[in-house]
Amino acid sequence: MSNLLDVENLRVKFPTRSGVFEAVRGISFSLNQERLGIVGESGSGKTLTGRAILRLIKRPGVVEADRIDLDGKDILRIPEEEMQAVRGKRISMIMQDPQYSLNPVMTVGSQIAEAYRVHSKASKPEARDRTLDMLETVRIREPEKVYHLYPHEVSGGMGQRIMIAMMLIPEPDLLIADEPTSALDVTVQLQVLALIDDMVRERGMGLILISHDLNLVASFCDRVLVMYGGRIMETLDAKDLHNAQHPYTRGLLDCLPRLDGSHGELQVLKRDPAWLEA
Amino acid sequence: MIRVENLNVTFGDGENSVQAVRNASFTVAEGESFGLVGESGSGKSTVLKAIAGLHSHWTGSIEVDGMALKQKRPRAFRKLLQMVFQDPFGSLHPRHTVDATLKEPLAIHRFDNPEQRILKALDDVGLGPEFRFRYPHQLSGGQRQRLAIARALILEPRVVLLDEPTSALDVSVQAEILNLLVRLRKEQGLTYVMVSHNLAVVAHLCERIAVMNRGVFIEEMTDEQLRSSTPSHGYTRQLLVASKGYDRKAIDRFVEFT
Lengths: 278, 258
What we know:
The complex is a heterodimer of chains A (278) and B (258).
Chain A: E1 5-16, E2 19-31, E3 35-39, H1 46-53, E4 62-64, E5 67-70, E6 73-74, H2 80-86, E7 91-94, H3 98-101, H4 108-119, H5 124-137, H6 143-147, H7 156-168, E8 174-178, H8 186-203, E9 206-211, H9 214-220, E10 223-228, E11 231-237, H10 247-254
Chain B: E1 2-11, E2 18-28, E3 33-37, H1 44-52, E4 58-64, E5 67-68, H2 75-80, E6 81-84, H3 98-108, H4 114-124, H5 141-153, E7 159-163, H6 171-188, E8 191-196, H7 199-205, E9 208-213, E10 216-222, H8 223-227, H9 234-242, H10 248-252
Parallel strand pairs in B: 3-8, 3-9, 6-7, 7-8
Antiparallel strand pairs in B: 1-2, 1-4, 4-5, 9-10
Helix pairs in contact in B: 5-6
């Protein structure tokens, strides 16, 4: 029995004037119907990892891996046309900023309906009904009204819900969410996560949640990968995150100001060059 | 040091007008650090901008260091009060070097010894002299925010307004900047007014905290009260719960406060 997703020795490289820069440096992990968190700071390679799985790295960037298997089937070396069928239908990705990821000159309803029609043979009225159902599922009040709005007419929280509706309507097996909530207010952020959580449970999806927020990931996910400098520093069960042993993970946790802490000096992360080797 | 009374800020007019701040009143003592928290659209940044003089359409009274402020601010006011913005990528001129960025306020306010002052300002914020002739794109996010703080402090202000100074930064860099802000306040006896959506950051830096929702000050408390989780208003309690991480049951109980 193969895993839902198997990634082995994934590398993402960019040629620069001063030689090849390796942004993701040989990482391996696998995923089943679970919520996997990838945390790290900016530049740690977490977003590129998500994009590399979907083969969304643009040239001159290069993706190399021993294998990226979805349900035991290679998706790294299949032709681009076949990959088109994987994107959206099998694996979909929620991007960070709805305002940039939605088409500004299409109503949100027709964008979601389009996402559905690309992957099914549904007629236009069917797609429309499905879209309205989906908008209701992501708890948008008055879906009929929202259907005809343009992206600039909706709030950030609603835009992110629309993105989620669009990504979930083809019923993918794996959802990659790249900082899906970091542009939102805390309460809205949690409501959007609760929504993703319900979808994952109800549909038996796998979820990769990419985030810089350790506390959020620890409280939301089942398992966490901690990345630094394009490598995985450690993998642990989310409930054990606060007892993490790796000095990098510890450093990240310790430098957070805490509500129950004092005004004392915060610890500052000391980076060890050895983390980049090994 | 700062006294704000019945501050109202309205954008637009007629039917489309939005009242961003309603009857806000608060005072900040000299040397104190005052925090404003709230979600987006709560009007917290608008309050800061009205004090700084970046919004002119406000009514009510604002007093800083005994000086009653009108819409137009005298030059002495700019020297008294400076501001640090959220986005270190947008708040620096891309074609001005660090040196030029720091020199300009000195020239405007006719300070002597620009040379020494620039070196001292860089040193104060932990940037070495080797950064002096770099452009903003040659600096990391944290270094840029240090530069923005240096630019604010080079005029030796007594009040610094901080608008989400760490929210665009990684947590490890955030810790460095917060430590820097704490140290500078201690050394120079500054008064801070900080706006943030992050309760933990505000509780770390400020002794007194006001919570805003939809333009209204809903409560004011000390950092101790925030820490011991005994805010009186339901909205604040909900914010506290939300900032503690994902808890499915708590989320289902969230309500909207109007």
